[in-house]
Amino acid sequence: MNHTLIGFLCVAPATIAVALTLSMIGLADAQTPAPAKSVAIAPAVKKAPAAAASAASSNATVRAIEKYREALADGNPADLWEARGEGIWKQKRGPKNMTLEKCDLGLGEGVVKGAYAQLPKYFGDTDKVEDLESRLVTCMVLLQGFSYEQARRAPFGSPDNKPAMEALVAYVTANSRGVKMNVSLKHPKEKEAFEIGKKIFFHRGGPHDFSCATCHAQDNIRIRLQDLPNLTKQEPAQRAYTAWPAYRVSQGELRSFQWRLFDCFRQQRFPELEFTSQGSVALTTYLARNANGGVFSAPSIKR
Amino acid sequence: MKSNYLIAVVAVLTLLVASTAHAQSKSAEDRATAVMKASFKERGQAKLDRLDQDKAMALCTKYALTPIPKNLAKEIEAENLKTIPFPKDGKYLGDWKAGERIAQSGVGRQFSDNPANPSGGNCYACHKLDPKELSYGTIGVSLYQFGKIRSYSPEIAKYAYGKIYNAQAYSACSNMPRFGHNQTLTETQIKDLVALLMDPESPVNK
What we know:
The complex is a heterodimer of chains A (303) and B (206). With 303 residues, chain A is mostly helical. In chain A, 42% of the residues lie in helices and 8% in strands. Chain A has one domain (76-303): Cytochrome c-like domain (Cytochrome Bc1 Complex, Chain D, domain 2, Orthogonal Bundle), CATH 1.10.760. Chains A and B meet through α1, α2, α8, α9 and β3 of A and α1, β1, α2 and α4 of B.
């Protein structure tokens, strides 16, 4: 149940050291809590602070966490994925031995700069709304001649799988750094994707009766020590959405937004969300649109 | 005469527009459900029927953005209360130490979990319990001093058991999982959690 859309710990100063330690060694991860270790650390702090810390002390906490983030971001390994992705983008690949340099990500053939900030969007050639990952699949199929199955195979990285997909995602998204999110709902299919995504967001099910909204439709709540962004509201949605994809320190991998949704649903106790499925693109449309106006700042680095 | 005719025409047109709009919203709903179902695949223990909803979850989804009408809330609570098989031996308190381990564990019911292993309750994800555990969530209320504040009475123990077994019986559309009803925790495990909340020796009540 580690919802980590914003890797943003908000705790009172007394617990900051503990929180940062937990966060750095991955113990703040509520899904696999390590009771023995966290309890062992706990007695060092005399008293649990009240949940509602004063504004001043919570500002101090925020500043300390920002410092920690800056320290992490100095040398974000996501750079390696970005560089590899640029190489793959320009490399002749597939049965047609073509590069992706003619791929239209929505701003015209080969335009990468700012492209991610206006995705997902409707594409006439496929008559579908596509997010970045599904658009890359389309380009790999249409331009490079890969089969649909080849282009979508094993898209998430692991120690023995370093997919082209995540590197390409890093390269393209990095080219939207500093660009404001601007997702359109003008086309009827974009509007429909947004509405379907909203429905999926609020759909309660599974053995725990969870929906996305269980954790992400209230202000100022946290799971274990992890703050949970209210993704139905513009400001927290902007902060959360513009920070993905991210290099995850605890996993040693760059994680795409498709991965973020896949892993949220695993923790929601749902079946597996299929990579680039229509529902995944619809949910992304809902969340990206809620983040409109936010300045894109990923790939980021998270615990 | 003419104006009556006009009113009739307007009324018929209004009805037509209204029923078309209703049909459209109904079909949009069906389409969203169809898209969602087509976007997941079963994996491990997580089959596609996990997307299905019982009456309570269908209503809680429908009223996710607006307060659920009181009569429907009462219906959900009454129907869920009937599902709770309270322990036949009349005992609600197990071992609070075992309860603490269950409250800490977030294992269980994910497609990445081995269904042969017992599930945890992951109570600390949402609730404050033992004050020594600083890593607690705030989605649910604080349960610190649960028994001490509410009294160590059999009625409160029974309520705690029922609430963990089926939270919808006491608060319709609560965010809390129905741990017994949905077969995540066993009777013994729930009793251990009740002890964590209700045993005067439990660190929760210190």
